[in-house]
């Protein structure tokens, strides 16, 4: 039995001002699945991810990661299993050099120095950024920043990868490389994005959020062929399905 | 205004370094005692914010010139004295390294002048007293302006004292004070106004930010007595040690003290501390001062004594200095060219 | 406080340059301090005796490929305050100090030149330190020299986000200028208040996001770094000791006079 599953049941969250961001969200990701999380602005995607990471405390519902239920005392364990890649790599890359940044997680896990070094090397190789190791993080191109941001998470050997808008701010080539990278991973993946073409290519399954609820959950192609559903959730079919490419 | 290396003596610079190091260690310890991991990125980003905010040059009413924010008070208001002080230390260090502001020896002075006063004097004793509880727009205006003015006045006065104690500048105490204080009164008012504008903006847009920070600082009276005693002790000890070793002229602390203590004449006081000091100095100096040693006759010695701090005028020394100095500079330039040729030949 | 001069920021040493052959940052910090102390230890009427100290910036600058123009440009930024204070010396100190071929120079002018020279020397050495050693290595060096960890982390974060936030500020000013009237738009004090306030709110948001990114990677309040610094006694110890000995020599022996005597054949 694999421990690489993510099970969310009846998740609710309301901001202090009363706005209900999540209103009973439920879904389950199985080992190795690659799932897109889509929805219009304000549909609750970002809040969803913050709740998964235990960065906001949900007012109801459970998050179960490989058999561990998210709670105050299990936050550390959950975060060890789930790797989060945030939308802005500038927020993710806070250490002076690429090496330091990729080593940040493993060092916090208390690993030995040689182990940390080998983890850093392997993760950077995994995203094709081994040559950037000694560079200061502020001197990277957009694509390089994204790749390194992913490596900072890979170095912690997570079971599940959670990404927020991974293709934002990337040029076409950078985006292409990212899609190839996403396809290559064998982790369980959850990708929150507006880039529906990326979802079509890299995710077999799609969850549509609308007004804090799951509006649809199924095979990506089926969902994007459902024009009425997309319209209702303020979405449009991916360009490749509009016959534009 | 940043204090500069060029106007400092090692004794004063070293003393202020010790004071700044003491304050830094104390603040670091205080932060360690009340751990809050969200403070690490907050302090860092706010330090960067200071540099960014200084990019925004605004026009100063009436004068037609333009200025930018200093930011010390904003940091203190958002972070509390200890964290704000450390952020200012980091900002001033980066300014010394990248902006040529002041220099490394003067860093100690600058940390004291621009960090200590806003964080440990103006903030707890003025800002918090006025606008600590139930802030209103008026209270913030009064508190921010008053604390900015007082902080800058103290800082400017401290620059004057440090310059006087170093004795490199000829500016008389009175003139320097009259020069520095009014300028910094104006700067203080502007700083107060812009601080008020920023704080009220934040207070209206996101009141929880200010509330959270005032709760977080956990400032229940700084043990000022302890801090000041420690500082005074550090200052006296290091000051003593530095002036003992660093000067082969009587141009350090004791010179300026003799000078500013009222005697307009340049005569060295007979006997007393000064005589003891110079006697000590003659014994302890690495080399007897070359100007004095060259003087052959006793009356020359006496003449030199009359000027107390003037080194002897010796045309011979002047010429050799001028020519020798120029030769040295030429040699230094040639050394540079040689190194460049050698290293480019290697590549 | 700091002036707006974007070019000053282009200084951090090129990451492409191999740092292995450069002295350990600790050695560099120590030498720089020794240098500044030596410069400031001379009396205020010393000019010629300061000249041997120029060997240091010239050597370091050329060895590590720092352009003299960039260096001087930055050093000049430090001059205004120093000159302002220093200019009073010629006015107030009229005692004749130097006589050469019938021309006399007052002590005030001599000390004025001395102050200018001190400023150039001291400031150049600090800038050289920053231009030849990457900032993270300077910080590592500081940590190894027992500077409190909080401050070192603070310096690292400050440096990391300095460029980013300055970019934000710059874009904000540009957006203001494009919509403002006149050829040389000025920002009114009240406008500046809300601009800076907005910048501050963005900075606070940024801090929250960074904090989150740190938390999910197991941050517990302590920033850990591996320390790749290796102090080699032959390279770094030699570097530090060599220069310090030179500074001591400069302090104890009047080299220019000695040089003069040697040339004149006395």
Structural class of chain B, by secondary structure, is: mainly alpha
Radius of gyration of chain B: 24 Å
- pLDDT averaged residue by residue of chain B: 74
Element-level helix/strand string of chain C = HHHHHEEHHHHHH
Instruction: Give the number of DSSP strands of chain C.
Output: 2
Quickly describe the structure.
Chain A has ten helices and ten strands.
Written overview of the protein:
Chain A is of the alpha/beta class and 245 residues long. Chain A has a domain at 6-89 and 160-241: P-loop containing nucleotide triphosphate hydrolases (Rossmann fold). Chain A is built from ten helices and ten strands. In chain A, strands 6-7-8-3-9-10 form a six-stranded mixed beta sheet, sandwiched between helices. In chain A, helix 4 packs parallel to helix 6 and helix 5 (113-126) packs across helix 6. The longest helix of chain A is centred in the middle third of the chain and has 14 residues, at 113-126. The N and C termini of chain A lie far apart (41 Å). Chain B has 347 residues and is mainly α. Chain B is built from 14 helices and two strands. Chain B has helices at 10-33, 39-53, 72-79, 81-98, 107-131, 137-166, 173-205, 207-216, 224-246, 253-260, 272-284, 290-294, 298-307, 315-346; strands spanning 58-59, 66-67. In chain B, strands 1-2 form a two-stranded antiparallel ribbon. In chain B, helix 5 (107-131) runs antiparallel to helix 6 (137-166). The longest helix of chain B is centred in the middle third of the chain and has 33 residues, at 173-205. Chain B is globular, with a radius of gyration of 24 Å. The two termini of chain B are 45 Å apart. Chain C has two domains: 6-133 and 232-264, no CATH class; 143-215, no CATH class. Chain C is flat and about 75 Å long. Chain C has helices spanning 25-41, 55-63, 68-77, 79-86, 88-92, 107-132, 135-144, 149-179, 189-215, 233-252, 255-264, and strands spanning 96-100, 103-106. The longest helix of chain C is centred in the middle third of the chain and has 31 residues, at 149-179. Chains in contact: A-C, B-C. Chains B and C meet through helix 1, helix 2, strand 1, helix 4 and helix 7 of B and helix 1, helix 2, helix 3, helix 4 and helix 5 of C.
